[in-house]
TrEMBL record:
Annotated keywords: Cell membrane, Membrane, Transmembrane, Transmembrane helix
Membrane topology: Multi-pass membrane protein
Location of this chain's protein in the cell: Cell membrane
MF GO annotations: transmembrane transporter activity
Protein name: Putative ABC transport system permease protein
Classification lineage: Bacteria, Bacillati, Actinomycetota, Actinomycetes, Micrococcales
Length: 868
């Protein structure tokens, strides 16, 4: 039988190729997942620990006074410590000429093992009057090694950074000794870090009220264990928590990503889905092979082959096919993994290895799983091959009898799963709105899984009716169309299996697309309410009364930046806030009052509800002001009194009484008035702030950089912050994950399309004599091919449309459960994506009919009608 099996495999090489490609793609998917999962895990953990350089251990204190310079000196003298540096930084404004840029700043590491950055040129500082700048900062300021930059420390300092006690911000000149790179992304959020002498950094941090640190990166003496270091550090400062660098890296990576193991698990889930679809395709393929070999298998039975030998031949063929295809899938997986690594290196700052590293699991798991799936998928066709009696199989029958009746137990089980799963999904959404998103998401996921299983279990009951309804519409386009519709119902189980394979992939694509679109829209709406402006420029004025810190010409230059849609200047003044009865208990009850022109501000805000009710006689306040009791929901504050504060910090002049409206989304303690009202109360109020709106298609990071450049060119020391970059970053993350997931699911869809081709091939085999009769009655080859094309497109359309409908419902339910607690769900339907899926599915169904159509049209009618 082995010789017969090998001979039949050679004879059916073309047909086996379809199943081989399906299992190859699924196995390659598993291989790539295992390979890239290790790479991603290493990249995330390395990035999470980059701030500590190559430290052996990290010591942290969660309480107490922290590590002061004198304490650090004692730590460095411990025999268990080879080197120790504080993990701390501060932000300093660097100026060269008329350009000023704020940059995170750290101290020079005492050991190369503790330095997360590398020297690009020159050297690191060794004295208080020196600094090494990030490469991009040196270029932005236009300074080279040996040049000079000016900094403004937190308080008045001498040339070595010490305070003279006057409180004035006196500039200090520093010599640029070198430039540094941040190859491991330790300071990715701030674009690198400038480096100064540690003593100078300690003085600056002390002047800014940040003298103590609570984390140390430690290079230990050889053989030192975490327990030994803990005891040694405890002798200097009580209650240290000591962990190895690897432990800290794993903890940080898990906190940031939800666990890299979870990522690998999610991707392996999609690999399992692809293998499931591949199993359906393989089962259909072997049904094709068994149908082709019906007479040959009958002859083998007549000459003495037993049922067991026939079944073993089919299963053995599947095992050999699975082994070969899975091996090829492993090879393809390594190539794809290496390609993915090259692409990732070109599009990310994370340090990645140059090549994927093979492991035993990445080789054996895909081969074993792929072979096992192929064998399991062949069991039903193998059983079918032994069920037909030899003499019956030798008759000129067109197709084996197919039982079309489904049991009542299938119907009951399907309804129970669908209704129970639907109820769980609804419960999940309700839980999300009730403020329990994790429980809600778990319930929605479980409910979606159960209901989808119910849909698949009962597909043989409802899918033929859907196909029949679609076929009825198709039948209006001529005889060939009516024949195509009728052919899909010849074997409803096989048609259902094929449409189901496509339904699985499309449902998941639609689920992820709708879920991502809904999440994106809902999160954007939530962010709009919390942070109504994209970018806020907050300048530090020179204190001269009436002199704007943000001059009008600078605001015009900001408005001209590419990507800026609107700019709203905000005048500010510090005022004493009076209680509703008009009294202030002390001059210390003060807050910053912001004056805006409402029409201009609304153009710059994404959520204009912040300014509802604002006019020259009414102010907008938060529900959590600092002086009066906050109003309850649905109530407005009784009113406020505002009193100007002079340059000496004391309130002067009369109290101006205004009506007040409480806004839920106003920042705590915030008070907003019209620009005219603020000028009336405080004529010397200055423009220190600007709200900026960024275009939806503009690159937020580039806009922020360009705005910083405008401020730098104007010599203005200002902070630039806001949610534009975070909003864009969140959207980029959603889009990137969606592209990755859709790419993974596309594998399942491609495999399902192969199943459509196999179904049409089997249909051609079963209707060989019927097709010949139609040809003899005048049906042309072209019409015969068109009939099969319509059959393929009908199956593809039914599977795709059903998947789109189910996926939309699942995507909305999942997003609703996860995001309801953020302030409401805004359903997003990605019409372009869903429409593209439908068009591609129809085109794929048409393409899948090409080979079967040629085969049917190529056979002469006389040969097909002959009795073999």
């Amino acid at each position: 039988m082995l010789a017969v099996t090998l001979a039949e495999m050679r004879r059916s090489a073309g047909r086996l190729a379809a199943a081989g490609v399906a299992i190859l793609l699924g196995s390659a998917f598993v291989c790539v997942t295992l390979l890239t999962g290790n790479v991603i895990e290493r990249a995330f953990t390395d990035a999470a620990a980059a701030r500590y350089g190559q430290a052996d251990m990290v010591a942290e204190w969660t309480s107490g006074t922290g590590v002061h310079p004198a304490t650090l000196t004692r730590v460095r003298t411990l025999p268990q410590v080879r080197a120790a540096d504080p993990v701390a930084d501060t932000t300093i404004a660097y100026q060269a000429g008329d350009r000023t840029v704020s940059q995170a700043t750290v101290g020079t590491a005492t050991s190369p093992d503790l330095d997360p950055q590398t020297v690009a040129s020159g050297r690191l500082p060794t004295a208080p009057g020196e600094v090494a700048l990030p490469v991009h900062l040196a270029a932005q300021l236009g300074v080279d090694v040996g040049g000079t930059v000016t900094v403004t420390p937190p308080a008045d300092t001498t040339s070595d950074g010490t305070s003279d006690g006057t409180g004035r911000r006196t500039p200090v000149d520093l010599t640029v000794t070198g430039t540094v790179d941040d190859p491991h992304g330790a300071f990715r959020d701030t674009g690198g870090a400038a480096v100064v002498d540690p003593a100078l950094l300690d003085r600056w941090r002390a002047l800014d009220g940040e003298g103590a640190v609570f984390t140390l990166a430690v290079a230990t003496a050889p053989g030192t264990t975490p327990a030994e270091l803990t005891r040694a550090l405890a002798s200097v400062l009580p209650d240290p928590e000591v962990r190895t660098r690897a432990e800290v890296a794993q903890s940080n990576a898990s906190r940031l990503t939800g666990g890299t193991d979870a990522f690998t698990g999610v991707v392996l889930t999609f690999a399992a889905i692809s293998l499931l679809v591949a199993a359906l395709v393989i089962a259909n393929t072997f049904q094709v092979l068994v149908a082709q070999r019906t007479r040959m298998l009958a002859l083998l039975r007549c000459v003495g082959a037993t049922r067991g030998q026939v079944a073993a031949a089919v299963v053995g063929e599947a095992a050999l096919l699975g082994l070969v295809a899975s091996g090829a899938g492993v090879a393809a997986g390594y190539l794809l993994g290496q390609l993915a690594l090259v692409v990732a290196q070109a599009h990310t700052d994370l340090p990645l290895p140059a090549a994927v590293t093979p492991s035993v699991a990445s080789v054996l798991v895909p081969v074993v799983v792929g072979t096992l799936v192929t064998v399991v998928a062949s069991l039903v066709p193998a059983r079918a091959a032994t069920r037909v009696a030899p003499l019956v199989a030798l008759r000129p029958a067109d197709a084996p009898h197919v039982d079309r009746k489904a049991g009542a137990s299938r119907l009951a089980g399907s309804l129970l799963l669908v209704l129970g799963g639907g109820g769980l999904m609804a419960l999940g959404v309700v839980a999300g709105y009730a403020g329990a998103p994790q429980a809600g998401l778990a319930a929605a996921f479980l409910g979606g899984t159960l209901s989808f299983v119910g849909v698949l279990v009962g597909a043989v009951l409802w899918m033929p009716h859907v196909v029949h309804a679609a076929g009825h519409l198709l039948g209006r386009f001529g005889p060939a169309s009516r024949l195509a519709a009728a052919n899909t119902l010849r074997n409803p189980r096989r048609t259902t299996a094929t449409a189901t394979a496509l339904l699985i992939g499309v449902t998941l694509v639609a689920t992820m697309s709708v879920g991502a679109a809904t999440a994106s829209r809902s999160l954007a709406t939530s962010l709009d309410g919390v942070y109504p402006y994209d970018i806020e420029v907050d300048a530090y004025g020179d204190g001269t009364a009436g002199t704007p810190s943000l001059p009008a010409d600078v605001l015009r230059r900001i408005a001209a930046v590419d990507g800026v849609v609107a700019v709203a200047p905000v005048t500010t003044a510090t005022m004493a806030v009076a209680a509703p009865d008009g009294r202030t208990s002390s001059d210390s009850e003060q807050t910053l009052v912001l004056g805006v022109d409402r029409a201009t501000a609304e153009r710059a805000l994404r959520d204009t509800a912040l300014l509802d009710g604002l006019d020259d006689r009414t102010v907008v306040v938060s529900r959590t002001p600092w002086v009066w009791s906050p109003p309850t929901d649905g109530e407005d504050a009784a009113g406020v009194g505002l009193r100007p504060v002079g340059t000496d910090g004391t309130a002067t002049g009369p109290v101006v009484h205004l009506a007040a409206r409480a806004a839920d989304r106003a920042p705590a303690g915030g008070v907003y008035v019209t620009a005219a009202t603020l000028r009336r109360i405080a004529p010397d109020a200055v423009t220190t702030t600007a709200w900026i709106r960024v275009g939806d298609d503009a690159g937020a990071a580039h806009v922020v950089s360009d705005v910083q450049q405008v401020l730098s060119d104007a010599g203005i020391d200002a902070g630039v912050s806001g949610l534009a970059a975070e909003r864009e970053g969140t959207q980029d993350v959603i889009d990137t994950l969606l592209r990755i997931v859709l790419g993974l699911l596309a594998v399942a869809v491609v495999i399902a399309i192969i199943g459509v081709a196999n179904t049409l091939s089997l249909s051609v085999i079963e209707r060989r004599r019927e097709s010949a009769t139609l040809r003899a009655l005048g049906l042309t080859r072209g019409r015969l091919r068109w009939m099969l094309a319509q059959e393929g497109m009908l199956i593809a359309v039914v599977g795709t449309v059903t998947g789109l409908v189910l996926g939309t419902a699942y995507g909305w339910a999942g997003a609703g459960a996860a995001l309801a607690s953020t302030g409401g769900v805004r359903v997003g339907i990605p019409w372009v994506t869903l429409g593209t899926v439908l068009v591609v599915a129809v085109a794929a169904g048409l393409a899948a009919s090409v080979v079967p159509g040629r085969s049917a049209a190529r056979t002469p009618p006389v040969a097909a009608l002959a009795v073999e």
